[in-house]
Amino acid sequence: ISPVHEIVLLGLFQSQGLSLALATLLLLSYTAVLLGNLSIILTIRAESHLASSPMYYLLGNLSLVDLFYTSVTTPQMALGLLSGHSTIPLGECLAQLFFLHFWGCIEIFLLTVMAYDRYVAICQPLHYAAIMGRRTCTRLVAGSWLGALVHSLIQTLLAATLPYCGSNNIDHYFCDVAPLLGVACTDTSLVEILVVSNTGAISLGCFLVLLVSYGVILAALRHRTTEGRNKALSTCTAHLMVVAIFFGPCIFIYTRPFSTIPADKVVSLLATVVTPVLNPLIYTMRNTEMKSAMRRLWGRWVKAEK
């Protein structure tokens, strides 16, 4: 049996007309992700009171991660549909797997850190400035990057050490651990257990921490005034919506034994394409302060152009 040097992504095989429509949709989605997240980053950097706020510092980092996360798969999928070229060298496939898990894991950790930020702001408001100082925020973000790096290295090394031979077809849109292991010509049971233990534990563990954090927050809000409760719920609701649409697909894909089902491809598209598009909309549409800052920035830009 000959060794595999290229992977064929069967998920990209569609009729020519449908391929063009899907590629156009993907490129439009990618453009929306770029514009939305860049707007958030530029607005936070332009407004000093936002740049100095821990909440918006973390949001700016989340937007930056979203840009890279969706860039790992969406452009490649769109180009594959337009060109009809759906093969990818095994080395590039492993690199895509690494960066997919790297940026995705950073996002998981950042969303958890943002929940902690909201917990401190609501449950310990008098100590918020001392607890969530810039140094602490920087360390939490750096810790998220380091943890994600360790996670993705483990995932990639587990996949890279396997022999691949025979059929090189995977029924997916991009390279991920589960579909790639289907090409391995050896028993992958142990690797599957290690991968599920690693990724599944991170996804489910962080999700449970988030649930506990917001349970404590909701309990604390019962004693607030209506105005204070509504203001706190506004920022928490936006974060919870992002958590739900991001963690849902991750938990569905990575916390069960590797068995490919048709829903996997739909859920993967939801995680890598739809969620990054929705994140900027959720954080701006439900945040009065962010919308006002964006309007001021737009006004200054228009005046400068004149």
UniProtKB/TrEMBL annotation:
Q: Which coarse location class applies to the principal site listed for this UniProt protein? A: membrane
Tree of life domain: Eukaryota
**Listed GO CC annotations:** plasma membrane
InterPro entries (alphabetical): GPCR_Rhodpsn, GPCR_Rhodpsn_7TM, Olfact_rcpt, Olfactory_Receptors
**Protein's cellular compartments:** Cell membrane; Membrane
The residue ranges crossing the membrane are: 20-44, 56-74, 94-116, 137-154, 200-221, 233-254, 266-285
MF (Gene Ontology): G protein-coupled receptor activity; olfactory receptor activity
What does the UniProt keyword field contain?
A: Cell membrane, G-protein coupled receptor, Membrane, Olfaction, Receptor, Sensory transduction, Transducer, Transmembrane, Transmembrane helix
Checking Pfam families in the record gives: 7tm_4 (PF13853)
Please state every residue range assigned to the domain named G-protein coupled receptors family 1 profile.
36-283
* Membrane topology (UniProt): Multi-pass membrane protein
Q: Which family does it belong to?
A: Belongs to the G-protein coupled receptor 1 family.
Which PANTHER family does this one have?
A: OLFACTORY RECEPTOR
What protein does this entry describe?
Answer: Olfactory receptor
